[in-house]
Amino acid sequence: MARTAWRCALVILAGVLLCAAVETAVAAKRVSIPDDLRDVVDDEEDDDWRHWGAAAPPRDDGPPPDLAGMDPAALQAELLRRHAGPSFGFVKLRLGVRRSQEEVMGIATRWTNVLRTGSVAAKFVAVDFGTLMFTMDRGQDILEVKEFILSQPEAYEFKIGNQAFRRPGDPPLDEVVEMLQKQKSTMLSQDPGSQQYKSKVEL
């Protein structure tokens, strides 16, 4: 009987010590914040937080260039660089590649999402099987969009207004269309009994 009482006393003592240890640990984790915060120094805000929501300062592109002495290509590049309003343009995809409607829509969606990760708000939509149209609210991002598009393997030509941009060494669009039509005619003349080549190059 004495042994049983001794064991019960040890179990009760261990339980009391365990509860006291848990209470101490919980009390140590609590941080009390007083209601009077006059003596607290708040130095966690950085400059970005203080200026959050303020209008962006105007871009300083320096003095305007002398337009009279510029050649047309440099003039167009300068106008494109200083563009600030909404913009839209077209992208011709590589010709001679068959694409389904889902593939073209997938390219447009992928490009929109990739540019959004770089905080460029451009939206691409499919016009036909070989052309995408893009719209953007901030025209000052047009050079980033141009660089991005010309770095994509599916893109052939980037067109905004009357200006068309291609990778260095790529022939003009008319030459590519003519070359594809010649290939098509030689394929048909070599094998006249074959099924007619039905792929249409969208312009």
TrEMBL record:
Keyword terms, alphabetized: Signal
Disordered as annotated region, ranges: 44-70, 184-203
Keyword Protein biosynthesis listed: no
Signal peptide: 1-21
Keyword check for Signal: yes
Protein name per UniProt: Mesoderm development candidate 2
Organism: Oryza glaberrima (African rice)
